[in-house]
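Lecture notes, unit on binding sites. The following record was shown on slide 14. It pairs a sequence with thiamine diphosphate.
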Amino acid sequence: MDHQCPDPDRLRLRQPRFQGLTSGHRACAGCGAAITARLVLEATGPDVLVANATGCLEVFSTPWPESAWRVPWIHSLFENAGSVAAGMEAALKAQGRDTKVIAFGGDGGTFDIGFRALSGMLERYHNVLYVCYDNEAYMNTGVQRSSSTPHAARTTTSPPGKARMGKRHLKKDILSIVAAHHIPYAATASVAYPPDLRKKVRRALAIEGPTFLHVHSPCPLGWGHDGALSIEIARLAVETGMFPLIELERGGVTGVMPIRNPRPVAEYLRRQARFRHLFQDDAKAREELEHLQAIADHNIEFYGLTGHGPDALDTEGADTAHRGGMRWA
Ligand SMILES: Cc1ncc(C[n+]2csc(CCOP(=O)(O)OP(=O)(O)O)c2C)c(N)n1
Ligand code: SF4
């Protein structure tokens, strides 16, 4: 019999993955934040310490005296996960240990109130992977808008009405701001593409220095969709160009997930109640829909998302296509 030597990479991928965030926590069904934390820890394995900013992830995973975490875990304040993670890393370094520190923060804790702490951590070059699970609002306190909330989305503090169609301002481009700190690696990822997300975590862990992962994480409660649709919706965000999957090394784009046949933005928006007002028969609603389509078109053009490599639609969880930069194992 022809006996071929098995590919060690394939064998490794068939091993049961480390479940660092166990079941039994109290997240809503279909919560993207929970999926993000689980996928990140599947890639890190058990030898990590976690700092977790106040927010849904912290609240649903650690109702006293229980915890769903199977790694050492510290609850920071809403505003200082970056500082706490930096301190943990400095303490480990002083002990001569190279265990990696991971910080988790929501978009409110990252883009807004925790940004100062994050910026300091990046600039001082701490050996920390910071993961922002982006559910695009302050969910834990009742769906208030953040600087990550997309333009025209409904939140409790950006209700659509006569004067405006939901949030007036644009979603902050956090990745560019993070990249401006000259850190070695920053990337976007999505819960809809687990192999890509895990690979990006492994890349970040292999680097000595600050790294940043921005993960699009649907929230059924705040976005107004059935929890069973979370992955489909996250996938549409990528396929429409609303949430491009890219990698940056020292500020330069080195990888993108191509989308050969971009889908219309309306397909992504119409599945979520937070954009329902954009589908009424109204000139202002049509104008805002066009505006959102223009944002997606800009992303596609700016990052050159069409025309390179396999289409994310055809390749379940396609990896980003590299355009130079470091050579990855
Ligand atoms: C200084 C401070 N201000 C406000 C709060 C109340 N608070 C706790 S969690 C939260 C929202 C967190 O939003 P985000 O970081 O996006 O995480 P999510 O809840 O969406 O997971 C707020 C406003 C707080 N804990 N500390
Ligand atoms: S409110 Fe949203 S982010 Fe919070 S647990 Fe529910 S689905 Fe997750």
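Take-home: Confidence is low (pLDDT under 50) at residues 310-317.
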